[in-house]
Amino acid sequence: MAIDTGELPIIDLDGYLNPKTTSDKERVITEVRDACQKYGFFQITGHGIPLSAQQGLIRGLGNLFHQSEEKKAKLSFLKNPGRRGYEASGVGGLRAGDALHDSKEAFYIGREDPVLEPPGFYGPNVWPSLPEEDFRDPIWEYYQGTTVLGRIIWAILLQGLGYSADLLDVFAKRPIVQMKMIRYPPSSLTKEGQFGVGAHTDFGGVTVLLQQPAKAGLEVQDSETKEWFPVPSIEDVLVINCGDMIQKWSGGAYKSAKHRVINKADSERFSCATFWHGDADATNPFNADDADKDNIGQLLFKRFKSQFSLPKEVQDQQQSVVAHPNESGIPQQVKVQ
What are the DSSP calls for 189-233, one per residue? Predict the structure, then answer.
């Protein structure tokens, strides 16, 4: 059942994944629907991601981010047409209303496809020169787990709106699933007025967030009072939220809430967000008559263009590919050397 913490509910997904009665699945669907309508956020247990996989991820992030700046810079996502790899602190664009750039550093992976498909939503990942057991293996295990979980959350959200979970087959045959691993520096190393991540909403579909246990930092804004409330960081509890695309597609039934991160502890903090969107060429599956015909790829590109400091020539090239795929409707494939 949902636990009323006075803030975000904690929902046990086991009733949906392993129902013991005919009403168990419906109860979870209702709890998720209510949380997304009220908050746009909720927390989950019984999600099927082993604790060992979560712990392996955190260890892997330490191994990655504790490398030298020189080694990390060689993996820069700005050098990669698929936007995979390392993002140094302060590289991202400055958000409206923020006095300073985010203090975080990050690393991105996605689906492991053998060839790059412009504008970069599908393609091979960038991996650091670390023993596979120290990074790639645990990170990929966790990525695969959250890829499965993200689809389950989408199925629950669809049923909460009265649709069949089979609707996923319409817009998620080959979904864009991106994972962002983040390190926040100790509070003593951040400047006054600097956020780990400034106030924002997520762009797209479902976000699955792991916070390092006992190192809270996430805050969610109440859409009515505009007050910020903290989200506790509890071992084996994941945080789920809806992005702007879900709010739009659902006609506002589900909220996309503003959130931010402030690391108040004088020690580093890790987190990991998996963003589960849908097919690059998919449009609103709930409303074929939606006047906004932007597909997921176009919406995602617009967000990247404003958020990341990509060179203008790269932006122009990628915008052309998003707007004008080849005649088959699928972007041309390019082998990565």
Answer: GSPTT--SEEEE---SSEEEEEEPTT---EEEE-TTT--EEE---
CA dist 167 and 170 (Å) reads 5
312: pLDDT strictly greater than 80:
no
In 3D space, the residue among 239, 243, 244, 224 whose CA is nearest the CA of residue 292 turns out to be 244
CA 63, distance to chain mean position in Å, is 21
Locate all alpha helices (DSSP H) within the chain, ordered by sequence.
Answer: 14-17, 24-38, 51-65, 69-73, 136-160, 168-171, 244-249, 296-307, 312-323
Taking alpha carbons only, the member of 107, 125, 126, 85 closest to residue 182 is 107
Are 168 and 154 in contact, with CB atoms under 8 Å apart?
Answer: yes
The predicted model scores a pTM of: 0.90
pLDDT tens-digit map of 290-308: 888 899 998 888 877 654 4
pLDDT one-digit tens code per residue, 183-204:
999 999 999 999 999 999 999 9
The answer to whether the CB of 63 falls within 8 A of the CB of 134 is yes
β-pairing, 176-184 vs 269-278, is: antiparallel
Terminal CA-to-CA distance of the chain, rounded, Å? 51
Q: What is the pLDDT of residues 132-174, one digit of tens each?
A: 999 999 999 999 999 999 999 999 999 999 999 999 999 999 9
Q: Which of 74, 167, 173, 91 is nearest to 126 (CA)?
A: 74
H/E element holding 41?
Answer: strand 41-45
What's the CA angle centered on 208, arms 96 and 225, to 5 degrees?
Answer: 50
d(CA 92, CA 70): 19
Q: In whole angstroms, how far apart are CA 37 and each of 209, 242, 285?
A: 19, 10, 19
The mean predicted confidence, pLDDT, of the chain is 89
- In tens, the pLDDT along 264-281 reads 999 999 999 999 999 999
Sign of CA dihedral 13, 18, 23, 25: positive
